[in-house]
Give the backbone structure.
Amino acid sequence: MSMFKSKAEIDSMFGDNDAIAGLVIAICATLFDNGVRHVHVGGLMRLLGVEQEKAVEQDDKVFELPDNFYDQIEQMGFEKIDDSQLSIPKNVILH
């Protein structure tokens, strides 16, 4: 299965929510940046807090992140965040 081609496809999987769509893109970008090209849809849904009963219905689906992943998401209207903008303030504990 190829990667989603539009925000509408993301919305059809996860609901019409810009914040969730942004999280889907962020997770996929993290995977892409770390060499992972195949994304397990059921696992992605679980990362986003989707209930087990619904996520299990997608456990047989996987999509592939293409080599031009960043070009495709920019065409969908998402922007790549520069690494220098990603930082955690000192003395912050993440749980």
Remarks:
- The radius of gyration is 14 Å.
